[in-house]
Design goal:
By secondary structure, the chain is of the alpha+beta class. The protein has 8 helices and 10 strands. The strands form 2 sheets. The chain has a 6-stranded antiparallel β-sheet.
């Protein structure tokens, strides 16, 4: 039986990226049984570059769901589990993006890619090829994280056009772990509930009530995992 390798290394992005990227995670698993990695709903967008074989991705767990073969991908906020089929080997880098990171890195609201998984090229643009090549050429996780810092900081615009009310509402919602009444959130930003719901959905792809449910689920999952550690 082949020796199993299980490696997962976390790192913080450069200071300029931290409003938009929560963390980097490098992972390498070899010698395991084939299976499905389940990507659960969370309050982050997913950004993955495979350092091995292309990722075999479906946007849901349904047996007949269409699958894509992607070397690098971006997944928006979603309410259903996504599925990454693997042969027992997984090797790559994953970034957890805040929804504001879609504006900063991709020049679009997170709402444009909600409930979707896309190839990275049309989203990040021409630097995608450089990023993939340099990550694959690096030999350590610290070198790969430095590559991410260098390429992504270069991609940042001078300003990120998100209304301060929308920015505040998202941060307030996540800070509360999703446990805040939507009417209270609307009052705090000075908008009607209807207007806030429209602006929230336009920016993030989910209404505030749905987003709160996703954030609560993600918080409960993290607490469960931490309790088992």
């Amino acid at each position: 039986m082949a020796e199993q390798i299980a490696e997962q290394i976390a790192g913080l992005p450069a200071a300029a990226l931290r409003p938009y990227v929560d963390r980097y995670v490098g992972y390498r698993y070899e010698g395991f049984a084939p299976g499905i990695h389940v990507g659960l709903p969370s309050g982050h967008l997913t950004f993955i570059v495979s350092l091995g074989a292309p990722l075999d991705v479906a946007e849901c767990l349904d047996a007949g769901a269409p699958r894509q073969q992607l070397t690098a991908l971006v997944g928006g906020l979603h309410t259903r589990p996504a599925a990454v089929h693997h042969d027992g080997n997984q090797y790559g880098v994953q970034l957890s993006l805040t929804p504001l990171g879609a504006r900063a890195l991709f020049g679009m609201p997170a709402g444009e890619i909600a409930e979707r998984t896309l190839p990275m090229d049309p989203v990040l643009g021409r630097v995608t090829g450089e990023l993939v090549d340099r990550l694959r050429s690096a030999s350590t996780w610290s070198q790969r994280f430095a590559v991410l810092d260098h390429v992504l900081v270069r991609s940042l615009p001078d300003t990120v056009p998100v209304a301060p009310e929308v920015r505040f509402a998202w941060r307030r919602l996540t800070a509360a772990g999703g446990a805040i009444p939507i009417a209270t959130l609307a009052d705090e930003v000075g908008w009607t509930r209807r207007h806030m719901t429209e602006r929230f959905r336009r920016e993030f792809g989910l209404g505030p009530k749905t987003a709160a449910r996703v954030v609560r689920f993600d918080r409960a999952r993290r607490m469960f995992v931490a309790g088992r550690a």
